[in-house]
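Journal club prep — side note

Before the paper discussion, L.F. wants everyone to see what a predicted structure for a comparable chain looks like in token form. Sequence:
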Amino acid sequence: MKKLVLLIICLLSLAQAQIGQPVESLELAMDAYKPLKTVMGYFAGKDFRFELEERGGVLYKVSGKGPLDETNIPLASDLIGYATGYGESMAGPVKTFFEERIAELAGQGATPLGVEQYILTVDVSGEEAPYTLDFSLELSEVDTALFPQGTHTLGPDDAKHVIREFSDFQCPYCARFVNTAYEGIKEELLARGDVRFEFHHFPLISIHPNAFPAAEATECVVAANTPEAFWLYHDSLFARQQAWQGLSDASSYFVRLAEDIGLSSEGMESCLAERSMADVVQAAYDAGVELGIRGTPTVYVDGFKVGDYTRLENYLTLLDISEKFAQE
């Protein structure tokens, strides 16, 4: 896969994703274009063909090809919007992109674009408009065998489903995750008994100078206490993020924080000074880089990337999709 060169960012309203639903739901959504269904796929618009691929009895992947003229631009945009489940709130920005910026990708080969929790891969050909578009759309998915082993976990070791968060303690968006979906995950999803939650370090040292030391501090706390102490310290670091994020040397604060919340700080000062846990944090970060992670928080349900990580319903949708896809 080529390096991500463009990112389509949309303010999306809630909707149920068509991918992961019966193929008939997308057929119905596209009925206004009167597509002709054949053994070679669906034909609509002006020489535009699209295909709907199933997995586990539900829609898995959408692909299409045809000239991007005034007839096919709205067709392709609506197909992508309906396939993601976001409808016009996705189709509108995609249509604008096709109208105003598609020439930037002409001749560049297959180019993946991040579209919320989806990967839209486009291959644009032609010397001038109307360009020919060849695209595919599917959920952003990682082979679960590639994930590093979870060290900090909540829930059963043999859980059927795993939610993995790659996080940075100094990241304000990670704090937002803790203040939104994290509590719901603990209270509602872990209560099911078939879900495990994993935290993975991914400190963005280029923009958050205290993120790496904070991650080290959590490991030092665990060494001084028990594995369960990680979660109390994790919650406290995020709750007091404003207090320590700007310190020139936060080590003494990290030691005091352990004491303030009733944990042992024995050995923490030397652990931080000698950077005894630096290799542990670095290894976690390197594993995230290998997965292609670039920002935080990045959250996965099983192998599927979560788009809006603040909404618990998105986790429920992906858990349902994971169940369906596993039935193939």
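L.F.'s comment for the group: The chain has two domains: 6-139, 144-322. Keep this in mind when we get to the figures.
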